[in-house]
Write a structure and sequence with these properties.
This protein is of the alpha+beta class. The protein has a single domain, classed as Outer membrane efflux proteins (OEP) (Up-down Bundle). Helix content is about 65%, strand content about 15%. It is built from ten helices and four strands. It has a four-stranded antiparallel sheet with strand order 1-2-3-4, with no helix packed on it.
């Protein structure tokens, strides 16, 4: 009986050549997604808007100036003695003020600075999410492509086994049962091939949508692939970093700072304010006034200080302070929840990668064992000590192991990125290490 291995290698080689004909690297597709992905572009636009919003708070501590110009037409009518006169009044006023003591305004300005930090954390989270979405879609396509490759190779091997069973039945060395078992397994593999082909088509569409390209083709991984170990290997190092640098923790910390400043603003509502004011006024009557026909012009310059002291506001200030203190407690609880959440997520991601690396070693051993078992069953079938179903089961086990091994490798690659996302250190530059494991 001919071995399945040459057919499998030929199918894999053909698919590999067709896959790399117009393939793109992970970095290339990430750059394409960064420029066009709607979710990321929305986050980037929100970041720009928040930057502009934070600058608005600075206006409360800077000087302000106004220009007012007016022209009036007046009619003066006196009944005793009977006297009427129409005249025009023109005026122009420039006024300016500079806050000297307004603690509420300074609190608003500091809130604007915290808003910048919060916006940066939000954009960082969006960028990390884009890295994960592109990587996941990239390796989903590779995994679906591998699955289709293995199913087609299995179909070829089962077809050979079916042909062998039919020949043996024709010469009387096997029963019809062998042929029917092989036919049933062949029909099952055909169904699996249809499902795998559809899954690959769906995965390609998902990748195309993220990167805004048509028929994007990822580079396959280098075979054999050398997966890097976890660095650092101590989980506490990952968790400690997550609790201080994760975007969600930074957002919660900035939200707490904003809440505290809101309490400062509420307390400042009951404090006095002091402003420096200055003004210059020009009033002109080109054809006189109500009592004189002579042209007149008056120039007035004023400089002063203005003090405002709130006395009673119906207890609104006290109630506002109570509200902001409660919101401050809420922000502190949210910060603690964020820290606990990222700690749990980091531990889960860490053990996921660690487990994945262990599974890869076990599946590599299982692949070698399954290969040996298949060859032993094929030899036993040829000499009559094994039946057809034994060979078919061994083939199915081998290809299932190959699919599981390929998926485990992709899961570890994406899992290593998810681990960095979980502890908040993921950057686009981290794709370089993963991209180096792909065929050029």
């Amino acid at each position: 009986m001919p071995s399945f291995r040459p057919t499998h290698l030929a199918v894999a080689a053909c698919l590999s050549l067709s896959a790399t004909a117009q393939a793109q690297s992970l970095i290339e597709l990430y750059d394409a997604a960064r420029a066009t992905d709607a979710t990321y572009q929305s986050a980037k636009a929100q970041f720009d808007a928040n930057l502009a919003k934070s600058d608005q708070a600075k206006a409360a501590i800077l000087p302000s100036a106004n220009l007012a110009v007016g022209v009036d037409r007046n009619l003066f009518d006196n009944s005793n003695p009977n006297y009427q006169r129409a005249y025009t009044s023109q005026s122009a006023t420039i006024s300016a003020s500079q806050p000297l003591y307004r603690p509420g305004n300074w609190a608003s300005y500091e809130q604007g600075l915290r808003l910048v930090d919060l916006s940066q954390a939000q954009l960082q989270a969006a960028e990390q999410d884009l890295v994960i979405r592109v990587s996941q879609a990239y390796f989903d396509v590779l995994g679906a492509s591998d699955s289709l490759t293995f199913v087609r190779a299995q179909k070829s091997a089962v077809a050979e086994q079916l042909a062998s069973a039919k020949r043996n039945f024709e010469v009387g060395t096997s029963t019809i049962t062998d042929s029917r078992e092989a036919q049933a397994r062949y029909d099952l593999v055909i169904a699996q091939e249809i499902a795998a082909d559809n899954d690959l088509r769906v995965k390609r569409l998902a990748l195309d949508q993220i990167v805004s390209r048509v028929n994007a083709q990822p580079n396959p991984v280098i075979v054999p692939i050398a997966l890097p170990n976890l660095q650092p290997q101590d989980i506490n190092g990952w968790v400690t970093l997550a609790e201080t640098s994760h975007p969600s923790v930074l957002q919660a910390q900035n939200a707490l700072d904003v809440a505290r400043l809101e309490t400062t603003k509420a307390k400042a509502s009951g404090k006095p304010t002091v402003d420096l004011t200055a003004g210059y006024n020009v009033s002109r009557n080109p054809n006189g006034t109500s009592t004189s026909a002579l042209h007149s012009r008056n120039n007035t310059t004023s400089v002063g200080m203005q003090l405002n002291l709130p006395l009673f506001a119906g207890f609104s200030i006290q109630n506002r302070i109570r509200e902001t203190l409660s919101l401050e407690d809420k922000a502190a609880a949210d910060l603690e929840a964020a820290r606990r959440g990222v700690s749990q997520a980091t531990r889960t991601a860490f053990y996921g990668v660690l487990s994945g690396l262990g599974q890869i070693k076990a599946l590599e051993a299982a692949e070698a064992s399954s290969q040996s078992a298949l060859e032993a069953n094929q030899l036993g079938y040829r000499v009559g000590v094994r039946i057809n179903i034994d060979v078919l089961n061994a083939q199915s086990q081998l290809y299932q192991t190959k699919r599981d091994l390929a998926k485990a490798r992709y899961d570890v690659l994406v899992g290593s990125l998810r681990l960095r996302q979980a502890n908040g250190t993921l950057k686009p530059e981290d794709l370089q290490a993963v991209n180096a494991l792909l065929a050029p």
